[in-house]
Amino acid sequence: MKEQLLQDGKAVGDRLSRVDGRLKVTGAAKYSAEYELPGLVHGVLVGSTVAKGRITSIDTKAAERAPGVLAVITHLNSPKVPGFAAKSNPDEPPTIGQPLRVFYDEKIYFNDQPIALVVADTLERARYAARLVKTQYAAEQHRTNFEANKSRAFLPTQAKRNPKSAQNDYTRGQADGYQNAPVKLEAEYVHESEMHNPMELQSIIAHWEAPDRLTVYDKVQAVKGTQRAFAKDWGLPEDHVKVIATFVGGAFGNGLHNWPHETAAIIGAKVTNRPVKVVLTREQMFTMVGYRPKTWQRIQMGATKDGKLVGISHESVGQTSTYEEFTESTVQQTRMMYAAPNVSTRYRILGLDISTPIWMRGPGEATGAFALESAIDEMAHLIGMDPLEFRLRNHTDTDPEKNKPWSTKYLKECFQAGADRIGWNKRQLKPGALREGDWLVGYGMGVGTFGANRGSAKARAALLADGSVVLQSATTDIGPGTGTAMVQIASDALGLPTDKIRFELGNSLFPQAPSQGGSSTVNTVGSAVNDACLALKKKLQELGGTSFANVQPEQLTLTGGQLGLKANGGPRMSFADLRKANNGQDIEVTIESKPDGSTRQNYSMYSFSVHFAEVKVHTMTGEVRVTKMVSCADAGTIVNQKTAGSQMIGGAIGGIGMALTEGAVMDDRFGRYVTKDLADYHVPVHADAPPVEVFFVNKPDTLVDPLGTKGIGEIAIIGVAPAITNAIFNATGKRIRELPITPDKVLLA
Fold first, then answer.
1. Catalytic positions, please?
2. Which residues have a Cβ under 8 Å from the Cβ of 104 and sit 6 or more positions away?
């Protein structure tokens, strides 16, 4: 297969299995909590039991006397972090407010806020001693109820400070112009908070190798960003902080932020002069590392009787903490998806006595698409039109928000492919018309979009003595198969079989790369890998001398231990001779790759998706089963059909959770979650996962990057939840606007 790939020059587009797959399934892959360091000890966090107030006393004597305990750290004895800054990660957008400074003072901002760290020689002893810490509080009246406090929502500070902020109110055409339409719709939509529940718990091992040299093995999505953040916090040169995240056991955005447990572990290691491991419990994952915020939305929409949109108004209120303003792009899709001449959006946030939310897969856009795509379906029903036809009538050939052409847009092809595959022709306009025994059958669809972003990144490429090539870049892999895609890109660029290429990542010692998030890794790091491989070939060409002087680099191949030409019969030179020409050293290059800013300014660049769902709803129990899904993506060149398909399937299942099962429940008497583990907070399991058919348009967008790729990770989930809820309406005639749609809501609707 590999030789065939080289002959065809098409490693990109193949279904190459994951290059790290064997390491993962055999247990050889090391995750952040699995490193074994001499003298390693364990830290356990103690959380507050009130949601707001201050600590009046904290008794640690019994815990300190417990067997094996090395330290009990609180705000009373913690070494102060010298650089606690206004934003914890220099790579993140500017934060209004102050990220939680662990052990900084006696103030309590949310229930289960970390107030102490117990460090002991074993995990069991640390857990036991943590239960011995006794705390008294001066509790204050807390606010955690969203509905009761929604009127207190406010315009984000960043919008007040910057008139160009995307969080400001937006108007195109006439403000609230929907009111002039002959057919009008007004509806409110709510979804509860969704919690990050990756397989791997959040964990860190912190080790001060010297008083001014820190190494952390950490579950993060940005090793360079984390390096900069901790260097700033502790007043260290960046090269004195090393961050290792070679393997990440799933992440959906919560690894994009640095959290209090990480700083607590670093403090614990400083106090004990030992490497300290901290692994959050599943319950702490609900309170300490962010979540998709609960959001209320109102859509007001107007259309003509023949299906042309007149206007859309979209309001949104999302929750945040009282100490930090978290914002996201909830109303963005409404501004640019459909050809409505009049569009108004208003975004507000609501500070509550809870921990700070964080980006979660499809951040903002997945939330906004639930409201927008539900409203589109509702309007289509009001005017008696098929919802696919309604979307086609309001399709945009240019970006109506920015008034720019799309770099590429093949959404109509997605519509056609998805409709054919789901059997959309079976869908009836009249809800409840299809039935199989005791089950009502319905079909729904939802559209998604996310910016096709590309940043700058560096990559190192080196030809080794054994004829293999190693590539390095400080990106991470949170699940999509980054290393596999990079090997395929390098194979095509070098003309070298994939089994001769190794891609190394997840280490802050490697060349600069941004965080893995925002569907931009292949666009950004893939471009750097491609450029580094071409630069390596050029260097080999130079070392090859006059024999290769007049040859274009793309005509060169690295096969059979030789530099040669794709055309047979040309000059060849062994790698050994090339190394001799390089003074016996590995031949390597490091290249930085950047987007063309001037080109990007002239186009609007997005990935697009459409999701179709078939559901069955039991007439007696209200049980909803998603029986089939089809997900179609317009995402440029698809580097790996297998891993990209897995991304789309994973997004579909995540959307099932958003639509049907996932929702945090708060006991507002105490400001504490009732749903605090996977027994009470239900994520979709295999039994909930239907067959998911994936289709890619697979047409390159070379304006985004030279490879023609666009992101998939976010659009895989954006639009899934409304596809399911719209299908439930088509099956039952019951319009439920609050997620998750549990059986009781179906029965009571």
1. 714
2. 75, 78, 80, 81, 84
